[in-house]
Amino acid sequence: MPSYSTKNDVVGQLGVPESKISVIYEAAAAIYRPLPIAETRAVVAKRFGIPTNYIFFISTIEPRKNIGGLLQAYHHLRTKYNLTDTGLVLAGKQGWLYEQVYETVEKLGLQDSTFFVGRVSDEELHQLYAGARCHVHPAFYEGFGLPPLEAMACGTPTVVSNTSSLPEVVGDAALMFDPTDWEEMAVAIRRLLTDDELHGEMREKGLQRAGIFSWSRAAAETLQVYQSVAQGHPVPVAAG
């Protein structure tokens, strides 16, 4: 399993014995690392026609990713806190019921400040992460949640839901919110947009947190599980 949260779900909901499940954490790919911020923002602004100051989201564009809540929070930032100089950039392919997301954009009058850039290459995604003022991951559920880890590896502070595996992944290196409360989400995003000291602190914490996870470690722990099974030994419970 990629997280203890997922392991607990499998044990609790499917009745799988805990002794048969190992936890092996995923990691951000090596490509994700900090880039020169000003230069990167200029590159993505020109390539995608987006503002140089933006909030970033990456996932399939569909309601189950809580994009509606994110749009409500973004609208709140603009109307209550007057943060109208920051765009919202969403990357990812269109998914199930994606039309509802676009309808919400129109209903809230966010057409001129919300930018859908579609599916992007790994290089473009790296640049979009690194150039963002902050990253937001508002999902209701994640088995692991790579986007926050990738954002942190790029030196971009992230704001995430306080549910499922996400607190386990980010530790104290991200701001968290209740995904059912878009006002709470807006407050967390606002803190990163307006507090430079906090932004710098979360950037450093995120880089340190991302460094804990590695694919080489995941590979070694996976090999250990295979060897234990082949030799008839119990599966390592806490490989992660």
What is the fold's blueprint, element by element?
Layout: H1 4-14, H2 37-48, E1 54-58, H3 67-79, E2 87-91, H4 99-107, E3 114-118, H5 122-131, E4 134-137, H6 146-153, E5 158-161, H7 166-170, E6 175-177, H8 182-194, H9 196-210, H10 215-230
Parallel strand pairs: 1-2, 1-4, 2-3, 4-5, 5-6
Task: Summarize this structure briefly.
With 240 residues, the chain is of the alpha/beta class. The protein is 47% helix and 11% strand. Strand 5, helix 7 and strand 6 (175-177) form a beta-alpha-beta unit.
- Indicate the CATH topology: Rossmann fold
Question: How many distinct beta strands?
Answer: 6
Major beta sheet summary: 6 strands, parallel
**Can you tell me the overall shape?**
globular
Estimated share of beta-strand residues:
5-15%
SSE sequence, one letter per element: HHEHEHEHEHEHEHHH
Strand order of the largest sheet: 3-2-1-4-5-6
The CATH superfamily is identified as Glycogen Phosphorylase B
Distance between the termini: 9 Å
Oligomer: single chain
Written description of the protein model:
With 240 residues, the protein is α/β, with parallel strands linked by helices. The protein has a single domain (35-213), classed as Glycogen Phosphorylase B (Rossmann fold, 3-Layer(aba) Sandwich). 47% of the residues lie in helices and 11% in strands. It is built from 10 helices and 6 strands. It has helices at residues 4-14, 37-48, 67-79, 99-107, 122-131, 146-153, 166-170, 182-194, 196-210, 215-230, and strands at 54-58, 87-91, 114-118, 134-137, 158-161, 175-177. A 6-stranded parallel sheet has the order 3-2-1-4-5-6, sandwiched between helices. Helix 3 (67-79) packs across helix 8 (182-194). The longest helix has 16 residues, at 215-230. It is globular, with a radius of gyration of 19 Å. The protein starts with a helix and ends in a 10-residue tail after the last helix. The mean pLDDT is 92.
